[in-house]
Fold these 2 entries.
Entry 1:
Amino acid sequence: MGSVDAAKKAAAVKAVDEYVKNNFVLGIGSGSTIVYAVERLAERVKLENLSIVCVPTSFQARQLIIQHNLILSDLERNPKLDCAIDGADEVDAKLTLIKGGGGCLTQEKIVASCAKQLIIVCDFMKDSKALGEKYKKGVPIEVIPMAFVPVQRKIEEDLGGKAELRMAKQKAGPVVTDNGNFILDWIFPEKSYDWESTNTKIKMIPGVVETGLFVNMTHKVFYGMADGSVKEKSV
Ligand SMILES: O=C(CO)[C@H](O)[C@H](O)COP(=O)(O)O
């Protein structure tokens, strides 16, 4: 295992060990770091005979829950969660996040918004002073397919930068999200942003479903470090 994967694993294990308690309803995020969190969760459930109900944030998360024989639920049965554990593409000094590198931002944000606490697990490369410093792929924005051109134009005219339609790698055409929508990656001009108002501006554009900007949602971040230690930051 390389140092980045070891860092992801260290962060995920620590978060699951510190935050998951018996009888929790737990949001399960998406991405590669979450795989380690679910592995650790399954281990603890077995060893400690815990009862944990899991609400997925994506098709991938649902599969992980099923593969590890964990209890699968949804927001209809469990609209209130004790905690959600998820990854991030970048975390700034105020714990504002860019999420959605894996395209699951909308369900991730919905599940996080239903949780008492959002706990982020990531490696040291995601830790930045200002968004855009480390993650160069922009802010993911989920859009209704028939609206992608007008949304693209509005973002570029009003906010500057480029809003690129995310294309699939192993299929001709765009990436289609778990909700049947497209993703625009907004490569924003380099300047300092008020992310709360920027997020609101983008969300007000007709056709936008959700953005990958998570503002004032994070309670704690566990950063796995290159030396195997874990650094913690909270608001
Ligand atoms: O937001 C996400 C998916 O939509 C992921 O949590 C984010 O992309 C981080 O993934 P990884 O743990 O693989 O670095």
Entry 2:
Amino acid sequence: MIEVLVSEKLVVRVPCAVIEHNGKVLAGQRSPALSFPLKWEFPGGKAEKNESDEEALLREIREELNVEVEIIHKLPVTSKDQGWREIILVPFVCRLNSYQITLTEHEQILWLKPKELPSLDWTEADLNVIENYYEYLSTK
Ligand SMILES: Nc1nc2c([nH]c(=O)n2[C@H]2C[C@H](O)[C@@H](COP(=O)(O)OP(=O)(O)OP(=O)(O)O)O2)c(=O)[nH]1
């Protein structure tokens, strides 16, 4: 995991995936046992030492969903200040390359049309990701 102290604050880099398939997007609900319990997120997780954002993303998606994805587009980085640490979300639009999903960490997943995404209770940082995803869709 890469954790950098900047001005006494821990900065954590978290690549995450906006996975598209058949016009829908995958949303994952966090486990009740984790931080941000039961909030919705884009699958991904903290990068490890010496890992690029892309490598970390592909590894996390394999670990959490047991599928392969292909990166299509990098969305703007967004951050969430938690007081004691700052989470830097690095979102990538991805497509599925294998289709048999097995959940190892999430409580559940949902496939939603892009316009349906705001109906879920997302982590705060993800609201920016959704806005940036809409912006990306509008330019396609
Ligand atoms: N994967 C992912 N994490 C997110 C999103 N939004 C958001 O605030 N986060 C936060 C939740 C976690 O604190 C962190 C990702 O950490 P992680 O998934 O590798 O591990 P974790 O739940 O055990 O993390 P932690 O909070 O206990 O340190 O980023 C998101 O869309 N996707």
